[in-house]
Amino acid sequence: MSKRKVSLVIICEDKQQECFARKFLYGMGWTKDDIRFPPYPIGRGSAEQWVREAYVQELKSHHKGLRSYAMITIIDGDNEGVNGRIRQFDNQCRDQKIPVR
User: Fold this and answer.
1) Of residues 25, 49, 48, 47, the one with CA closest to residue 36
2) What residues does each domain of the chain span?
3) 70-73 vs 35-36, strand pairing mode
4) Are 5 and 67 in contact (CB under 8 A)?
5) Residue 37 near residue 15, CB atoms below 8 Å
C-alpha cells in the first residue's frame, strides 16, 4: 500500500493555532492528506521553544533531501515581536549549523 506524500508541514504551539491553520488551509483547497502537524507538547515545557527546535529539525531533514514539502511555522510574538522571533529562528539555525532561511 502506497502512502500519499505530505506536501505541507505546519509547526505550531497549540490546538488553537492548529485549528486556525486547518480552517484556513482547508478553505484554500488543501486536504487533510496534504498536511502534517507534528505533535506539539501539551502542558510540557515551553511551546515556543519546542516550535523553534522542531523548525530546525524539519529544516535539517529538508536540506538533507530527506523530505520535500513546504513548511509553515506559527508562533506567538509575545514580547519578541516579528523581528525578534525571526532573529531567534535564525540564531537557532546558526547554533545547529544549518543554513538560515
Assistant:
1) 25
2) 8-95
3) unpaired
4) no
5) no
